[in-house]
Amino acid sequence: MAYEIDFIGVGKDSSKSGDAIAIRYGNLTGSRSEFKVVVIDGGFKASGTDLVEHIKQHYGTEKVDLVISTHPDQDHINGLSVVLDELEVTELWIHKAWDHNEGLADKFHDGRITDSSIGEKLRDNLQAAHDLVEQAKKLGITVNEPFTNLTFDGATVKVLGPTQDYFESLIPDFDGMPKKAEEEKDIVDEAIDGLAALAKSAWKAITAFWGDDDLPTEDKTSAKNNSSVITQIITDDRRLMFTGDAGITALEQAADQLDGCINPAELRFMQVPHHGSRRNISSNVLDRIIGEPVSNGETKNIVAYASTARDGEPKHPRKAVMNAFTHRGVKTVATRGRGICSSYNAPDREGWSSVKAEPYHYEYQEEA
């Protein structure tokens, strides 16, 4: 089967990165019934419009078989309401955290908190996700929660993470939750008040050496980001992996799933987590999913895309992250606000040309 993976250019006029991904696979020169269309995240509202137009123009259809909302951050979810409104969507995968409130009151010290009030708070804090679910119901779209091993199209599409247990363990640490979240916010506010001026200049020059990753070992990703849906698509013995904003812990669990997968498909495409943020991956994660660093100049038949804004640097993408993928022989590409496509056996598109891999960054600036 052929496939096309399209990263819509989120942040084409700004420094705000986001994800809006359209995928189709199957017989791309056949009738509509011979291929599937999947959307993973919709970026901001305007990105949703771009996504709709892209699918109509380049896929020649107004039907989407599956929409996946990886997590409820606005740079991922806001555009999906446009997709549901303007295209014919069959199925939506989205987490409903407010339905996982049983026993949550016990996680907090305030005796006035109840499971019911926690559920209401989650609905309020995750309003965009709740609204999307209600929109889908009104439109007659099937809604499923994407936990590990949920599949679509005969397991061509499969959820690698999170498990339901892991997802539920993250909920008490979601933004806006009582007690714990407020304490964390106080710490952050104090740090911002005391170090704001210094933070802008707290950078150091880094000299990189081939094969040495400059990556963290501890997971500092937020709970909401770690709740991201991690998805694989397998077609023609090619494994395609989409990570949302997942962090080290979530990706380690996804790697466990890959280790236990009986399908021998080789990884050919991977989404760089969280727009190339330095917090989200470790050397161990990359070694498990991609393999250990290779000799300088050696390459593998793997492509990795980071969805970044035009003016997102130096935060998105981090040079250390791009180097770490390159160390492993991966052709690594940052969108920088452009729409780009990775394809296999797909028909040519007029006006589209190949993109160059990210160069190796021997010197760069990094936060001290």
TrEMBL record:
What is the superkingdom listed in this entry's lineage? Bacteria
Residue ranges occupied by any Metallo-beta-lactamase domain in the UniProt entry: 36-109
Signal peptide positions on this chain: none
Give TM segment ranges.
none
Which Gene3D superfamilies is this protein grouped with? Ribonuclease Z/Hydroxyacylglutathione hydrolase-like
Among Pfam families, the record links this protein to: Lactamase_B
Where, if anywhere, are coiled coils annotated? none
Q: What is this protein called?
A: MBL fold metallo-hydrolase
What is the organism of origin for this protein? Answer: Neiella litorisoli
Highest classification ranks of the organism: Bacteria, Pseudomonadati, Pseudomonadota, Gammaproteobacteria, Alteromonadales
